[in-house]
Write a structure and sequence with these properties.
- The chain has helices spanning 105-112, 148-161, 218-223, 226-233, 248-260, 263-275; strands spanning 13-22, 32-39, 51-57, 64-70, 75-78, 81-89, 92-94, 101-103, 118-125, 139-144, 169-174, 200-205, 239-244, 279-283.
- By secondary structure, the chain is an alpha/beta fold.
- The strands form 3 sheets. It has a 7-stranded antiparallel β-sheet with strand order 4-3-9-1-2-6-5, covered by helices on one side. A 5-stranded parallel β-sheet has the order 12-11-10-13-14, sandwiched between helices. Strands 7-8 form a two-stranded antiparallel sheet.
- Strand 10 (139-144), helix 2 and strand 11 form a beta-alpha-beta unit.
- The longest helix is centred in the middle third of the chain and has 14 residues, at 148-161.
- The relative contact order is 0.15.
């Protein structure tokens, strides 16, 4: 999501790229990179669920091309600096009129960066993913694509910084094929280290016919756990997190309405969660 708002240079932060690693296999058509940055700007502080506005070099006389990216892993490394991670997919767009393919400005800028080079950015932007005071509260995460970035940060916070979680932590994650299962493929298995946690379960969904561009079967994966999901949704302390492309939200709502028994029943459940601040979205 590109933001039209660009703050004064005095409010910008800078960060140096420490490492850039591809986390989709070389055989995948999708190139997604795990980028680790370090900033010495002590005024910058971010938490899971928030994003930064990367200021890529602009085109056509514009100084910047701004693009929001959700932070995958914010962490202070010393009193003088902090690190954060971005999960970036190299994007290309086809012009509706000419049919020509163009590079996504910000994504290609970030994917082409070399360690030692720096970016300008501002933020953080967006709401923090809250951690309930009750450690027995259930946590339901539903996402696709690079929407897994805030989930990764949140899960690491629960099991590494807090020492574990007693409630159910369920993550439903969709990708076009198994090769695009970010942080859960042969190239990068970061999330696998939490599979032995009794409270954590990751349920993966892929397209049934990827060669024909069939939609990812995320709804079917959720429906396989319908009873457990409904029980979680009715929990008084359950927190729900949705992350990914905005287009996925309609499908998620349809699936949860089916599980709840009707659209009206689901809107009642969701309305309570929204009113109580237990429904969270990071969409682009």
């Amino acid at each position: 999501m590109t933001s039209p708002t660009i703050h004064n240079d005095a409010t910008h932060f800078s960060a140096q790229l420490i490492s850039s690693n591809r986390i989709t296999p070389a055989t995948s058509a999708e190139e997604v990179r795990h980028l680790v940055f370090r900033t010495a700007d002590l005024g910058f502080e971010a938490k899971p669920g928030q994003s930064i506005r990367v200021l890529a070099p602009g085109l056509y006389g514009n100084p910047y091309h701004a693009r929001l990216y959700t932070i995958a892993d914010p962490e202070a490394v010393s009193p003088e600096s902090s690190e954060f991670t971005l999960c970036v997919r190299r994007c290309f767009y086809v012009d509706d009129f000419s049919g020509e393919e163009y590079k996504g400005v910000a994504s290609n800028y970030l994917c082409d960066l070399q360690p030692g080079q720096s970016i300008r950015f501002d933020g953080p932007v967006g709401l923090v993913f809250p951690v309930p005071a009750n450690r027995k509260a259930d946590l339901l995460m539903i996402g696709m694509g690079t929407g897994i970035a805030p989930f990764r940060a949140y899960i690491r916070h629960l099991y590494e910084k807090l020492g574990g979680w007693e409630g159910k932590v369920r993550m439903f994650y969709g990708a076009h094929t198994g090769l695009e299962m970010l942080y859960m493929n042969d190239e990068n298995q970061d999330l696998a280290q939490y599979f032995d946690q009794a409270s954590f379960k990751a349920i993966q969904a892929v397209s049934p016919r990827p060669a024909l561009q069939a939609p990812v079967a995320l709804g079917q994966a959720i429906e396989q756990y319908a009873n457990e999901v409904l029980e979680m949704l009715n929990g008084k302390d359950t927190q729900v997190f949705i992350a990914g492309a905005e287009a996925m939200l309609e499908g998620v709502d349809k699936t949860l309405a089916s599980i709840a028994g009707s659209a009206i029943a689901w809107q009642t459940i969701k309305g309570v969660m929204v009113a109580e601040g237990r429904w969270h979205e990071v969409l682009y």
